[in-house]
Amino acid sequence: MGKDSYKNLVGQPIFKQVVDFLPRAKFDLLVHRHKSDRYYKRFRSWEQLITLLFGVFSRCDSVGEIAAAMQGLQGKLSYLGLDKSPAKSTIGDALRDRDEVLFRDYYFELLSHYSPLLSVSRIKGVDFEKFYIFDSTTIRLFSDIMKGVGRNPKGDGKKKGGLKVHMMIDAHADCAKHVNISEAKMHDKKFLSKLNLTAGSMICFDKAYNDYGQYARWTEEGVWFVGRLKRNAVYEVQEVISEKVLHDKEFGVISEEHIHLNYKDNKEQKKVCLRKVVYRDEKGRILVFITNNFQISAEDVAFIYKCRWQIELLFKKLKQNFQLHFFYSETENGIKTQIWITLIAHLLLTVLKVKTQTDKAFSTVAVLVRIHLTSYLDIFWMIQNCKRTYHKRKGANFCSSSRAPTIQMALF
Fold first, then answer.
1. Closest CA to 53 of 33, 69, 42
2. What distance in Å separates the CA atoms of residue 19 and residue 24, rounded to the nearest whole number?
3. Strands 286-291 and 224-228
4. Beta-carbon contacts of residue 412 (< 8 Å; ≥ 6 apart)
5. How many helices (H) and strands (E) does the chain have?
6. Per-residue confidence of the chain (412 residues) as pLDDT tens digits?
7. Contact 45, 37 (CB under 8 A)
8. Cα 81 to Cα 340: distance, rounded to the nearest angstrom
9. In angstroms, rounded to a whole number, what is the distance separating the alpha carbons of residues 206 and 225?
């Protein structure tokens, strides 16, 4: 069998090529600002970041698996700036003691660094340059470090803990712009007060974010929103803008109304002026939307809310492609650190997908990186050319006519 000339080999493993997307100088500035290496002679902040990224990309289930796997990479650790593989106890201590704020701030530094690259694409049909979607997802924990998941158990049962990741994404760039990690019992609408939105922004959310006072403040600030109206909402109809009778299996806008919602602010009765849109979708479901924007069409209101599904897909990508079923620490700080590094890993793969201009699914890119993490393949070639190809042997390499021809398969 001849030498395989189809592989494009380079002098660095895939993991090092992914790590090269990280701007080291910005990380070092944050380390200096937070003094996160002040009491560490070994296993500095950069080493912790690289170690946990290795665990996230390779989907290790525990700190023990990370330590054991990295022991076999002794010849490749110098590429990553590590002198030797860290011990299990060393990784655990850093997760417990090093403040997760360092990795949180670095995630947002990376987001700002790659914002020009990720913002080139836009959602067709949405005219708002700043279009954000926010929602939350709950992750269960097998400890009660962070409270609020499940019902109160009877007898000697133990209530599981859990955390809630509140996230606002840039819908055009498909990446998180604001993230807050809390106990699962925290109500979703408390997340609204943490947002800093500029005039002209369009935001989209579901029924959980029901805060009439916040709706009024957004209207005063020129921030537009599209949400859902709760079934028990009390409102006053000021004007019926339009009505339409839809036939069976027909979908579209049923009616539009100008409404006032009543709320209290510092014991003072106030009203917020909104637009109500009733819509029937392709499955026959009746959906009631509210918005403070009276310029866009009713169809646009329904389409903007339909785009909200994008954040659900992002949560699905995070949970399916990264190890968020097992946590490397039983401390709140360690759990949050792992969440931030998982978001960093997601951002790096998103950058890789954009740079390679591939139409492959995100999950395919994640699997390729995981399988070839320590291979010396060129990462761009690997993403762009990972196909099943068959090359027939020529001349003397063919078998006799009495037998089927031999096929050489090169699977990349």
1. 69
2. 9
3. antiparallel
4. 6, 7, 382, 385, 386, 387, 388, 389
5. 12, 11
6. 444 455 677 778 899 899 999 999 999 999 999 999 988 888 899 999 999 999 999 999 899 999 998 887 776 777 777 778 889 999 999 999 999 999 999 999 999 999 888 876 778 888 888 999 999 888 877 666 665 555 455 555 555 667 888 899 988 888 888 888 888 777 777 788 778 889 999 999 998 888 888 999 999 999 999 999 988 888 999 999 999 888 888 899 999 999 999 888 888 888 999 999 999 998 889 999 999 999 999 999 999 999 999 999 889 888 888 878 788 988 889 999 999 999 999 999 999 999 998 889 999 999 999 999 888 899 999 898 866 544 444 444 444 444 444 434 333 3
7. yes
8. 21
9. 11
Q: Of 1, 303, 251, nearest to 127 (Cα)?
A: 303
Domains of the chain (ranges; CATH) run 14-102+321-385 (no CATH), 124-315 (3.90.350.10)
Number of C-beta neighbours around residue 5 at 10 A: 7
The label of the residue with tokens 């809310």 reads 305
Q: Please tell me the distance from the alpha carbon of residue 256 to that of residue 241, in angstroms, as a whole number.
A: 5
Measured CA distances, 311 to 101, 102, 254, 332, 353 (Å) = 24, 25, 27, 25, 18
Give the position of tokens 């009631």. 288
Quick one: angle between helices 45-58 and 63-71, nearest 10?
Answer: 100
Pairwise CA distance, residues 158 & 144, whole Å: 8
* pTM, 2 dp: 0.82
Pair type for strands 161-170 and 131-141: antiparallel
Distance from CA of residue 269 to its chain's centroid?
A: 39
Smallest Cα–Cα separation from 318: which of 181, 183, 194?
Answer: 181
C-alpha span between 369 and 347 (Å, rounded): 14
Nearest in space to 335 (alpha carbons), one of 177, 139, 168, 167: 139
Other CB atoms within a 10 A radius of the CB of residue 348 amount to 21
Alpha carbons 160 and 155: distance in angstroms, whole number: 14
